[in-house]
Amino acid sequence: MIAQTTAATTEPTDIAPVAEDAAGLPILTAHGLGKDYGGRIGCRDVSFELWPGEVMAVVGESGSGKSTLLGCLSGTLPPSAGAVRYRMRDGAVRDVFALSEAERRHLKRTDWGFVHQDARDGLRMAVSAGANVGERLMAVGARHYGAIRGEAAAWLDRVEIDPARIDDRPTVFSGGMRQRLQIARNLVTRPRLVFMDEPTSGLDVSVQARLLDLLRGLVADLGLAAIVVTHDLAVARLISDRILVMREGRVIEAGLTDQVLDDPAAPYTQLLVASVLQP
Amino acid sequence: MNAPLDHRPTEPSAEPATEAYNFAFLDEGTKRMIRRAILKAIAIPGYQVPFAAREMPMPYGWGTGGVQVTAAVIGPDDVLKVIDQGADDTTNAVAIRGFFVKTAGVATTTRTAEATVIQTRHRVPEVPLTERQILVYQVPIPEPLRFLEPRETETRTMHALSEYGLMHVKLYEDIARHGHIATTYAYPVKVDGRYVMDPSPIPKFDNPKLHMSAALQLFGAGREKRIYALPPFTRVESLDFEDHPFEVQRFAAPCALCGARGVFLDEVVTDDRGGRMFVCSDSDFCESRRERGETGE
Q: Which end of chain A is less packed: N or C, by CB atoms within 10 Å?
């Protein structure tokens, strides 16, 4: 098999081109993933495959193990059992926890993104919006101020933040703007996989709708794969293709989003779907 | 200053108090420990080596790190010069020079060219240093990434993996806010293409003097318990952007006393009606020129 490579489009040199023959294969695979906290179960026996460009939602009530699972998948929380494998840009499949720390950190700031629930965790609040977006570019070797700034302005525009506010700090941004800034900061290196932990909670409903709309557009435009943890079934319905329902650390139901939400099989999922308030 | 406990009566003598103190104050075991840290620092240019800094008879921030490094490298035949902000006659310089006269009995000088060990705070002498000289810097905060990333565990990882993008975030922020890189002192440098290092709070005017210097340069941070070093003839590059290259400060007028150009000047307020003059910050450099008959305007 000959790996055909595409030329890198942006100037940063540190990001490898993507091998094209990887398109038909899963980008992320979890095998029997489990995490215990002492005697307590964080999550157990989670297995799935995520394909390029696919958005998967993980839903469940508080304490069901959603965030633990996301931590394990994103390489931040070493699992107690099982493995997470990722198809790198060169097409090679690697165990995320067998990567060296240098490789894992490089992966996290180039090919992956992580959108935190609280934008404060994902942003540098003491530096301007432009520097926040530019940080990843500088981390992979961009050293031209004008180019970095231009790229930052373009991304602010893309996430519907007025580029005139490029020199404002996130502290003076609203909650919705901060969340959008966080997204821009993650997407600037063209990642292929983005993890999102409750990206819309804490925002009011109209802002949520706008953010979801934006996310849906970006995911489609950029062909991103994403894993979105949420307790909000409406969010899952809007942006995900596939859904995992978790309870007490285990996946109790998995399938296409519409299928699971319209025709839930597990009693707990039925309860969850039925408990959504209808205005 | 109290002498170590000694039950014998001591006579004041004209000789330096070598009886009451071990040579250069620190005990030999401590000096060996510091020398080991210095050797490691020289072997890995720009890397911050932890060391067991001792309590010194002076407050933190007054050069406890520099004093310990000087004490570890100085010998009876050395000639010591101590400068503070370029001057030999400022409080910190006088106090540290007095300390080594008392505890080591070494010869001291204000002439840069005559000194073999120069301890400095915030300046590099204007006269180029030679291979037979050691320059010891007093360092308040050795970690260049400290104000960007407060976690020491994280900054150490960043050094280990050469993740220095964050340093450029600071420079980016400078340009975004001020239109140019507004960092004027403690300007970060990359050493031998590997470690990013804080050159201590010297003006960025002095950064080019670090590059390929013939003298051994040692940096001691007492409170933070770190030693780092630049061996002679080491590459030292100031960080910058392609479209905003590193620049040093420029002064419109020469030194008002000696007429020197291309040196770092201090502003001296001369009266309470706005009168002021700019004079060499390196007092020895200025005096030497004036002795040779150079004058300002």
A: C
